Each structure stands twice: as C-alpha cells, then as structure tokens.
Amino acid sequence: DPERDRLLYGHFPPNFTWATATAAYQVEGAWDEDGKGPSIWDTYSHQDGRIYNNHNGDVACDSYHKINEDVEMLKSLNVTHYRFSISWPRVFPEGVPSMKNMNEKGMQYYQDLVNALIAANIEPMVTLYHWDLPQTFQDTGGWENDIVAVYFAQYADLCFKQLGDRVKLWITFNEPKVVASGYGGARKAPGLGHQSTGVYRVTHNILKAHAKAWHVYDDKYRKNQGGQVGITLNCDWAIPASESEADRDAADRALQFGLGWFAHPIFVGDYPDVMKKQVLEKSRAQGLTSSRLPIFNEDEINTIRGTADFLGLNHYTSQMIAHHNSELMPSSYSSDQDILGWHDENWPKCGVSWLRPVPWGIRQLLKWIKEEYGDPAVFITESGIAEKSDVEPMLNDTWRMQYYTAYINEVLKAYILDDVDVRGYTAWSLMDNFEWADGYLSRFGLHYVDFNDPARPRTPKASAEIFADIVRNNGFPNPQILSKSSKYLS
Ligand code: GBH
C-alpha cells in the first residue's frame, strides 16, 4: 500500500464532528451524593483486590462538581462536541425508571452540563450506558435477565424526554462486548465467570435493549427533536498472519466475532453466519444439544435490523491473527473463534499492554466497515493512548502527539481516498481518569489530573495543543501552510 506511511494533506468535511470523550463512572465521583444509587462499578471497585491498589471511582476527577473546569478544557481544545455518559443510578437510584422515581438532583447535573456546553457552543454527544448498571438490577441477574432490556428502553425514553431538546446525538451502549466480558471472567464489573454462555446471553439482551431504545426515539421523539441514535462498538483491526486461506479466514472471524456480533444484527440482520456455525459446531462437539449462542426469532431479527442512525467506533489498536484449533474445553467466547491474536513486536509499546499504535489499521477497519455494512455513517467515538503513572513522562507526551496525528491522518485517508462516510473523530480522553481495573495507574488524558490533590487540578499535556491545532485546521493544511501537527508525520 503506497499511501500507508505517507502524509496526506487535506481537510475533513466542514461539519465534521471533533470531540473528546469521558464516561460517568470514570470522571464524575460523587458516588453516593444527592441521592445517587450504587452501580455495579461502585460495588465492584469497593471489593478488595478487584482494582489496582484498590482504587475506586468515589471521587475520580470530581467532575460532578467541576462543570466549569471541564467546559473550559473543552473550549481550549476547539472541539465541536463533548461525548459523556449518563449514570443510570444517578438519575434513577433504584434502577426502575419513571418520572416518580427520578432523582431530580442527579438529573439536574446533566441539565447543567448540557446547558453549559451549549452556552460554550459545544454540542453534547450522550452515551446512555457506559457500564454502570444500577446494582439493584444486578441482584436479579443484570444483563443476563432480559427484563433489563425493557427497563433500559424506559430509561432511554426519559433521558430523551428530559434532554433531547438539546442533545442531538445519542449512543445507546458503549462497547457491549466489554459489558459482556464482565460476565465472562474479564477484570470488569460485575466480575462473574459465566464465560461460555453468559457473554452471549448478555449481548443478546443488550441488542434487544438497544433496538427498543432506538424505536422509542423513532416513534416518539425523532420528529420533534430531529436527532440521531447509534451504538458504539469497539474493534481492533485484524491482520492475517500469513497469506494462507486459513489465516485470512481467521482474521475475518476475528472481525465477525469482534464487530459483526453486534453490527451484523443491526446493519444486516441476525448474527454473522460464521459465528452461528462456529458456536453451534463447538456446542455440539461439547455434548450440548443446542448452540450456546441464543437464537433470534424472525420478529426479533426484523426489530433489530436498521436500528442505528450511525455506527460509533472505538478503535485503539490492531492485532495479527492466525488460525488456531482451540481446545474444546473449557468453552469460551475466545476459544469459539479458533484464532490466535498477538501484537507484532515492531509496533511501539505504551502504558497498557493491550494497546500498540498501528495507525494504518484504523483506515483498513473503516474500509472494511464500509464494504461489509453498506456504507453507514461512522463516528469514531474513542481513540487514544496511555502512559503509566509512575514511569512515563507526564506532560511532555510526544508519543500521544504522534498517535493522534498519525491516526487522524489515516482517518483522513479513509475519507478522501476511500470515500468512507466518516463523520467525526473523538479522542479518549479529555483528561486522565479512573481507568477501570487499572485504577489511576494508566493515563489516557489530553489533560493531566493530579489525583493526590483534593482539588483534582487539570493541566494540559503537550498533546492537547497539537490536538487543538488539528481541530482548528479541520485536518491537515497543505504543505504551504504547515500546521503544528504536521511535524509529527514523517
Ligand atoms: C475503552 O475500551 C473504554 O470505552 C473506555 O472506557 C476506556 O477508558 C478506554 O477504552 C481505555 O481503556 O486488560 O488485556 O484484558 C477500549 C476497549 C476492551 C480495551 C477491553 C482493553 C481489556 C484488555 N478495551 N480491553 S485486557
């Protein structure tokens, strides 16, 4: 690919969406203030040994009390949008949503945040679910219990009703794959080990919940509010380890299990064929009479198909993928795929082991999505890189400048050279925050946060200036008018 390592000068479309993202549990703090109910992440973080150094999100960045500070940071980055999430148990402490059950003070925080953003000419992009399920629902099975899908639609309905006059971009779920992993043995709430069946039941219900929420918007709000509702999926690009057919099929399976699991039901209808075949065959070989992957009936297939006005994509890294005959037992989402994935040793490292920058991977994935799902509108809803608190340089984060410059330039190639309908780019994250099982050890922010200081001061890292420069230029000006960011492209 001759374009791969070359810099492309050019601009994104005039209405391109530039954003940074956060999530409620990772930044808000105030975990039990003003009537907020506990979420599964409060419960999980408060258990001994779950999180690095037993950190938790009790205070986090204290964003619940720092609307002005957060908006000032956003202004300094020139962004057009801010992606944040609503904490379900902050607005409905018992989980069950109704106007009667609404926690006025909790909802007021989001009202104030939305108003402050709009006053600053920054549009909100709101995620309804970034992993913090009300604990009350977990006590009856959480996402493995299909009634939660019904409650989710009611929750979405009331959020549209309260905020939809000003919020025009809604994301139902952030990374359902990761939500499910919390039931399948990953270091995520609720921390269960229901690996081989739990993960599939969870996502089955999340797909139903997503579709219900989209239909609520479509039926009740779209006409008057005129917004869009999508879903955010995370996926690494999959590079076949060799030219062999087996490895190319394996890379395709990685994408079908990784992205197709959700994108296929939503953009095409039903789970990907290869996933249905693979899990059924494995299940039979294991002695089960039916597949561990649940089955959608015709009605469900039709209700879920077509329920995304856009695809949100969280993309950080790529993997080499080879075919691998997994052991039959124990069964898991991972072994169901019959693949082996790894990072090429030449890719640079960063502060988290799962992430190595491969800028050209984002362009390949965007092209794949365009072809596979009929050219949907795509917003990159997260992308970024981390340093480790104690080891790496904090403010002079040259490698983050390189990361954003190179990744965004590859997104530009997807737009200009491949004609991908990419609508926006979002940096993860506005500031360092509670990085789930890593606690405050891994830092993804464009702003440094001092977690030892009760005031949680925010300081721009060097990358903040470069990101703001790219945003101000809406891309990469031509060689005659070099932008600051261009020097990070070789
Ligand atoms: C995003 O997930 C999340 O949406 C965001 O909240 C988070 O802060 C951000 O990434 C940075 O991590 O530890 O080896 O088991 C990105 C997808 C999926 C990447 C789970 C890390 C765990 C790998 N993530 N994965 S490992």
From TrEMBL:
Name the UniProt record assigns to this protein: Lactase-phlorizin hydrolase-like
Source organism per UniProt: Saccoglossus kowalevskii (Acorn worm)
GN (gene name): LOC102801678
Family matches, as Pfam families: Glyco_hydro_1
Family designation: Belongs to the glycosyl hydrolase 1 family.
InterPro entries: GH, GH_1_N_CS, Glyco_hydro_1
Keywords recorded for this protein, A-Z: Glycosidase, Hydrolase
PANTHER family: GLYCOSYL HYDROLASE (PTHR10353), LP05116P (PTHR10353:SF36)
